[in-house]
Amino acid sequence: MLTTSYTIISWLLVFSYWFLIVGITFRILIKRRSVPFAMTWLLIIYILPLVGIIAYLSLGELHLGKCRSERVRSMWPSMAIWLKNLHSIQHLCSTKNSDIAQPLFQLCENRQGISGITGNQLQLLTNSNVTLRTVVRDVQQACHNIEMVFYIWQPGGQADEVAEALIAAAQRGVRCRLLLDSAGSVEFFRTEWPGRMRRAGIDVVEALPVSLLRIFLRRMDLRQHRKVVLIDNYIAYTGSMNLVDPRFFKPHTKAGQWVDLMARMEGPIATTMGIIYSADWEMETGKRILPPTPDANLTLLKPHNDHTILVIASGPCFPDNMIHQAILTAVFSARKKIIITTPYLIPTDDLLHAICIAAHRGVDVSIIIPRYNDSFLVRWASRAFFSELLEAGVKIYQFEGGLLHSKSILIDGQLSLVGTVNLDMRSLWLNFEITIVIDHHEFGSKLARIHNHYIAQSCLVDARCWLQRAYWQRIIERLFYFFSPLL
What we know:
It is found in: Cell membrane. By secondary structure, this protein is an alpha/beta fold.
């Protein structure tokens, strides 16, 4: 009798095991995913069944969790009305763009309902110390409201000066809201700063909390990766820089200090970015804080405020693959030159082919990446793409002046993209990201000078030498390339 019971239990376990394997397999195949992505997960599940199944259930699908998903669905009607009111102010919305920019602007207006906004002043900031001092100055002069969202807030140095300025602003009556990613800002939440800020009246929210108890309820590696500062619905910042002082952030890494690029904007674009912040805030807190629609008086700006800026947002509550499609559109629009800066180069197959096709068309394509970065896995995985890029004629520069963290694309000296998006699977398909697009030749010239400054501190990868690298290096590259759809 005992033997029979043991046999029945054994067969039930075997049946349950194979039923689970088959169920997960069908779940992966039914989802409309890229072939490499699906094959990677299937191999992991078949080679390491139990570990693979747990990993897929926690990391394999893009789900926010029931509460956040319901908030996302409920917020869109109000946002649609806000965007409709914005578009009713005709002289705020761009009606004419360059031939290079037109396809991208049309794509974004049709898919996300946000068009290019005119009447803005724009400044590029390349020095982290200057950026932090400028943020402190703007915070000190704020009168009504300050909203911030960052992936990383690392206490120390000038970051503490920003915190003190924010506390002082709240104490004099400015409404302050701070949204920080739970994983990226884990050290911040272990310090006294959150308590001090809350006592001063600042709303401090930990976005997408990390917890083992929620591992099957929400995808844990889905992160809030935006970097945004909004002040008085008129001043806005975004770009690659976290709220950190580079002198105090990861000081012992081989890569050196992080080198970032931020854009400071004045004008109605700030309220457009505010609608994205409102979506993030409501998703986390359930509270609605829609910004005011730009007033007609706001457009009575000085003549030099002539930049048209388009904001693109991505993430689970925004149109699928929006920034990925925008980058593809920009690359296909290029006729003469493309310059890309990214700290992490693990492009999708579509993006890799688009870049190579552009080079084959005769477009001068350059990619600037750091020689060393803070991710061992990403560093080796990115090298697996070098051969195909170099064979197509793409120039790859390895920056040696620190960890080049800026994320930018310049098309034909006219169309500029600056923001938080890395050219990797995580930024393009998963995280909450933001990018601004500028259709302006003068601004493109400024960005080109920054790129040339990066190139002057870089080493060009020689295609012939690359082909002669050791076989053990190629093996490691291919091994980590296998995991590239998951990085």
